[in-house]
Amino acid sequence: MLGRKQEINLQLTELFDSALLAFCLWFGHFLRSSMVPVFLSDVPEIPPLEKFYWVIAVVAPFTPIVLEARGFYSKISHKTTGRSVRQLAEALAVIGMCIAFCMVFFKWSVESRAVVIFSVALGALSLLLREAWQRDRLRHQLISGKGRERVIIAGAQTDLDAFLTNMTAEQGAEIEIVGQLDIMQHPVSDLVAALHEHSISRVLFAAQHVHFSKIEEAVQACETEGVEAWIAADFFQTAIARPTFDVLGGRLMLVFHSTPQASWELLCKGIVDRVGALMMLVLSLPLWLVAIIGVRLGSRGPIFFKQERAGHYGRPFVMWKFRTMHQNAEAQRAELETHNEMDGPVFKITNDPRIFAFGRWLRRTSIDELPQLINVLRGDMSLVGPRPLPVYEIQRIEKHAQRRRLSVKPGLTCLWQVTGRNGIKNFEEWVALDLKYIDNWSFWLDLKILAQTLPAVIRGRGAS
Length: 464
Hints:
4-stranded parallel sheet, 53% helix
């Protein structure tokens, strides 16, 4: 709620944690290189610290970012040690995968496992101790009330009650509410008198049920007094969209967004999309060769199948696949409509007669999807996102809420892919999984879906 101040505190905490982790890596190297030989004379000598600089460069800056994504820095006053340990373990697992990636693809080596073990143990313990100290400090601040900013909340009484109910312990540690004023019942002069009496620096307006004219008058009074006025932006009730502020043409804009905002996580997603697609394309080249030869021998016609699909916000793009059906497959679709096993606009049948033998194997192994890596490299698709539907199927969607699946880039894999694939026959259920992904999106969720995709493909679960 205190916005910029809390953001700065978070950034300072992350910088401190980054320095703490770098120190733990140095100290871990010191223990292994200087202390262990004192007690174990026969241990081999390890390389100097310079050989571990790349590990420090990965661990120190990126661990706090992953910890923030896992919620490690949120609601610490009510967190249990077990939850903190779990979040820390998840973050370390991600960083471990990053280090493994560097070792495999850049051929960088970790010269001593003991250094890593010492550093991980020291780093985890240090972060937990730092959090415990911060938690105790926050609780002490709540009890003592020292150093808190004095504020007044103003608005309709029902809004004030709801505002106080939703206030968190972390927010309560930063501010002291010295007065409440129902501006629907009291004149603005009472607000000005309260500002003088309590030496107020900020007024918080809970104004969902207050006339704009009243709010305008009260804000102008704060402006005259040089007091900050904060207005709760909940006067529009939305079920999904989250409000934020932006500036356009010099005007402050209240923005309601129901998709992930621009953030470091989205930037990381874009980088992983391009780098991951390029790596997967190179590593899968032998499978491309197998598919090309198999399609050429198994059926007459082009090797690749190209179709116009609905992309981000429905923008059409040409999606590539290895061809798995006979050339006249689209013409035969009308004859097979009565056998459609999916409700809604999507067409899908088990043992589709249009698929030739080798094409069926390509589908079962998902090798037919590999050319979509080109779409990812071009920016038409992401590695993770709702599967793109043909444009003509999107045009048949009748419920507007189902089109919200178009509000993010389509992907190679998704929740539908790893939980049910063709086993899901209900389009409503399919869309529900896509919307669940959108509403709960995080970079960590993308990593989990990617990790679950390979086993699902190997098992061939639901593929046809």
